[in-house]
Request: fold
Amino acid sequence: MTAWRKLPSIILATALAALAGAPAHALDNGLARTPPMGWNSWNAFHCDVSARLVEATADAMVASGMQAAGYTYVNIDDCWLLKQRGPHGELVPDPAKFPQGIKAVADYVHRKGLKLGIYESAGTTTCAGYPGSLGHEKQDARQFARWGVDYLKYDNCGDHRGETYPQRYAAMRDALAAAGRPIVYSLCEWGNESPWDWAATVGNLWRTTQDITPRWRTDQPANHYPQGILDILDQQAALSHASRPGAWNDPDMLEVGNGYLNDDENRAHFSLWALLNAPLIAGNDLRSMSKDVRTILTNREVIAVDQDWGGRQGYRVQRDGDADVWAKPMSDGSVAVILLNRGRGPRHIATRAAAVGLKAASSYTVRDLWQHHNATSHGSIEADVPTHAVAMFRVWPGQRPAGGAASG
Ligand code: GLA
Reply:
């Protein structure tokens, strides 16, 4: 046996991870190897959740083509439960909202080939004042597993009883592992204690900011609610090093199709979240969305950027006033590029192949991921970008490889 093969596997794994430029460890539950895709009730419905809504949303996820495009999780957010635990300390789903309980909803969702998510908090209450899981982690995790839950979003509200962030979030991690069902574990502590520095061994994803709102920008300070699309984007610029398969930065759920965002802004938001390897968790009403919104959420070429792990999450290449250039290396040697016009009034935005990390070549194939057409370039990547919009490209040195790439 060679000396190399005698190395303990942990040292080998650490060395390989270091070579890959990634943190050495990630939560070892085998889940979320690509960023999770699905839907969550909060952004459009807040506390107005019910079995009927969740089941109709699952139907719409299938009928709209979202399931075929990769969306899987149907996630219930806050307010699904009663204000008091039951006689044995158990969480009780609100019978007015979930008359048959959560298991029946999970069965319905599973029959469609989809998965069910639920919400709790790592404090004494949820953010809407329902019972939290602190001190009840094992019991609650077992209950989620018995119900057939596949995804847990774990919030940060209520009293923390003096426990640290890593302690409270690790307690639920361990409880989920002991409950014996694969459950994606989504941390929601709003970036308060720099989860990108410690959460990779605790959860599959971690929120990096305060809550999103369907506005282009709010100009609130970073630690204030709410945050607009650009406010959140700017807080991601320094975090790309922390993200890796199984452990993702979460810049919050999508607002595509909600509030004050127009189609250009929706496309920009979706493109940027894909480039950031964000979980693509739709937050709109899938039952009544417009064709334009559906087309955005099911753009497979953009989704392919989100779901491809090329070694690094996308990062900002340059900022020039209202013109940003973002890039993400793809695993096939291409680079996804976003030209973002943050401001009012159209702008011509340009970059070069070398600046976005492409290897030198005599020509490049530039595929427009929204117009779905190819062009040839000798190194420049540029576009006239309308106000509050992006142009998004995938660029290959030389010819684009045959097959596959157009549809992901
Ligand atoms: C917090 C979270 C939101 C949502 C609400 C529910 O604000 O950050 O995403 O889950 O709680 O009350």
